[in-house]
Write the structure tokens for this entry.
Amino acid sequence: MNASVNLPESSLQLLTELQSSGLRLASPEGESDGLSRRGGAGPSDHKAVVIDGVTLMVPVHTHGAHQSVFVANEPDASGVSVLTRGSIPIAQIAFAKKPRFYKLQTLDGVPYSHIATLHGTDVLATTVLQTCIRYESRKKACKFCAIGQSLAAGRTVAHKTPEQLAEVARAAVLLDGVKHMVLTTGTPPTPDRGAAILCDSARAIKRAVNLPIQAQCEPPDDDAWFARMREAGIDTLGMHLEVLGEAERARIMPGKATVPVSRYMSAFEAAVKVFGRGQVSTYILAGLGDPPQRVLDVAHQLLAIGVYPFVVPFVPISGTPLEDHAPPTPEFMRSILAPLGAMVREAGLRAADIKAGCGKCGACSALSSFEKVAA
Ligand code: SF4
């Protein structure tokens, strides 16, 4: 979770610039430490960087990152690197340490890191089902998503069992002090959209260890699933709009766009009644065609319902159809995050109050830092 500090204007500027431009790593160790997010569901190709007390996922494997003006120099013995812009040193940064649970494997030989990974500095995250009906044909799949890539590369297993997840969660809490967990999933061909599998996973994890859990899935067919998910031990829920405009949704995520935004809105209302205001969230990818005012208008509606609008800059993941799509500029992100930070604060739904999940972690966006800016 990001530190509760008010950042100066120059730091906010640097955070948005780093997420847009990415970072070059001077040290080859940084490339191979197993701590970058590569592939997986949703946004990826990042590395967790701690700067001014804020943990931020910064692109390191994208085409743009390899050309970035920002360079992380060889870390010193304490793990601190000097960040330079061109040749000028501008800040000290640190990378998340490799967690101890990565050294372990299950009795049948599956490395724990193939079951769940560390996100940011204190979040355990997994894609429970690494297959997705939306991904069966690349034409229907979400163009930003790489859920099939880490599976094809042998870095993960297709279906993580509840027992495997419980075992890894317990180890990650005991050995590395993780504070909360994200269970996301590819969408299975069942009307519950993965809710049942998420319930089974959460039940097993909660039996093994007391760890706040966020589940993420498409809206299930029946709103009764929200109460079942809560009873299973899921603390917060993410249902991710990703892209907002009808034309952009149809172009960028043709399969997922068959579920209209109106269904997301009705599902949000039902879910907030179960999980509470601020404990339901949605990911919105900025930079894929939605103009800033549209993002802010939808965020306004979401906040009125009690949903946390987690707006993140789009990261073009290598190997996906959008790998050459330019990421949003820092100015574009600021034009959304500055007013959005104030809107979130006024609505009383701050990242710091979320019990678990992406909004609480906040590392994929500078939004939580903008929430803390004094009005
Ligand atoms: S915001 Fe979500 S996806 Fe991003 S690093 Fe944190 S837990 Fe992972």
Notes: The chain has 13 helices and 13 strands. The two ends are 23 Å apart (CA to CA). Residues 69 and 86 are 5 Å apart (CA to CA). Residues 57, 119-120, 123, 125, 182, 358, 361, 363-364 surround iron/sulfur cluster (CB under 6 Å).
